[in-house]
Structure formats: C-alpha cells, structure tokens
Prior knowledge:
The chain is an alpha/beta fold. The chain is 42% helix and 21% strand. Strand 6 and strand 7 (126-128) form a beta hairpin.
Amino acid sequence: MVSDVTFVIIGRNESQHLARTFTSVLKVTNNIIFVDSNSTDNSISIAQEFGIKTILKVSSNNGTAALSRSIGASKVNTKYIQFLDGDETIEYGWIEKAIKKIEKNKKIVAVHGYKKVFKKNDQDYFIKSDKKDWQSDYLQGAMLIVREVYEKSGGMETRIFGEEERDLYVRIKALGFQIWYIHDLMASHYDWKKKNFKNLIFGPSSYTIWVPLFKAIKNRHFTAYIFVYRYLIPPLILDIASIASLLFGLKIFIISSFLFQLIELIFCILVDRKGYFLSWKVAILNFPRIFHVYKLRRNVSVKQIK
C-alpha cells in the first residue's frame, strides 16, 4: 500500500462504475477522497459501503469537474494527489512508476499516461496514446501531481470545462516546472456517455479554450503558454488568417482560406492531433459565450458525508 498518495475521485451519477473504481484504488491505498457532484443515484451509498475515508457532496449552480477536483484537493495532506474520475479504474503499478519518474527529476511535478477506453461495454476497448515518454503538450484529468506545486500554482480553474488541465499546465510551467507523459498504462476509462455533434459544436467546452489564453496574457505567462499550446497556436493563426482574408474580397477569401485550411489540416495530421483542426473554429463560433465565464456568480455548497 502507498501511503504518500491521496486519490481524489470525482463523479456524478456514476453508480454503474464506482464499485470497480474503488476496488482498483483500494489495491493501492485507502487514502481516498470521493467528491460527488450532487448525484441522484446511489453513488454516495456505494462509497460508504467501500469505507471511503472522506465523502463530499457538492452542489452548485455551475458545477464543473474542475470544481469537484479542486474541492477534493483542498482536503489532501499527502505529498501527492492522484486525480481519477468515477468512471475510471487505476492500473495496478502505475503509482509506483509515476512517483519514480517524478523523483528522478526535481523539475517534473506531474505525470500522466495512456488509458484503455471502453466506449460501449466492458470488453471492447481501444488505446489512444503517444509513443514515448515526453514533455507533453497536454494534461489529462487523471494525473499524479505533487500537492505542494499544485497548490502553489493556484490549483484548477474551476469555472471552465475541458481546458482546466492545460490552464493548470501553463501556470505550472510558468513556475519553472515540467509535466510529462509516461508511455505506460495509467487507467481504464469506461466512457459510456453518449456524445453527439451538437455537443461538440455548442457544448460547455466549446469556447473555454479562450480562458487560458486571456489568463496567460493577463499574467504575462507568454513563454509557458507558447510551450503548452505549441501545437494549437498554428491552427489559431491559420484560422484567423482565413477569416482576415475576407477583407480582400470574396475571391481572395475562397482561394486563401482553402490554402490556409489545407495547410492546417496537414499540420494537425503530421503532429497527430487531428482534433485540433476543429478546436479554434468551434471556439471562434462560440466566442460571445466566453463572457458567461466572467459574469458568472456561482453558489457552491459542500457537505461532508463522512
């Protein structure tokens, strides 16, 4: 059993997965904080049955995964935090490998690996991964991180969906630390939630990519931002160039935007980030919605069940 790691597990209506999540983690440690986002199922009862040390129930008019993780992290007093979602299981042996990576290099303060992704059932899965250990351009919600540095960076941006990890990464990089991807199996993700094209284009994470950019400008974290977003900056420039070419007339716009978008598509394929081709297009389309983040007045209630 590992004593210097606390798992912060978050979930909302994850009763179909929680038993295997807790079972996998209890093989590693019993230092577990479960943060339930006001579930209407029996998630809390399952956590109680497994004897989870700390159970928190969070209610909010604008709940986010980052909010739940942040609340859970505030209760941690061990050296490391391992974040995990309620529909994931931790791979046995991952924690030891992750800690070893961090302790070999004082600059490295957070690590993440790859996952088995189960989309339809608990037998069929695929693996999406990079090919080697490297100082990655992204950070996952499931990660092992040094608590002291997490707190020093200011923790997670709790107002947004989908970009809270990279936003955290920028601030950690600005402090002079590194985050690495380890080419080892970290977890299994039972991602059975149905997602559609409408959610991709107009969902809650469709515009929040602007927030890390605005914060980096405000805090002058330019170098850190460029490092973390190094594969997303070229698509942004090419998308803006495509729109700007409209100023020179329709004919120029059609020809120029076609060329710019072709270059962008080739770039995204070459860096193995095909999804980045849509990232800024969706964000530009939803840009007016970004003001919702800054006007938000959120009410949060936290009840400790155990």
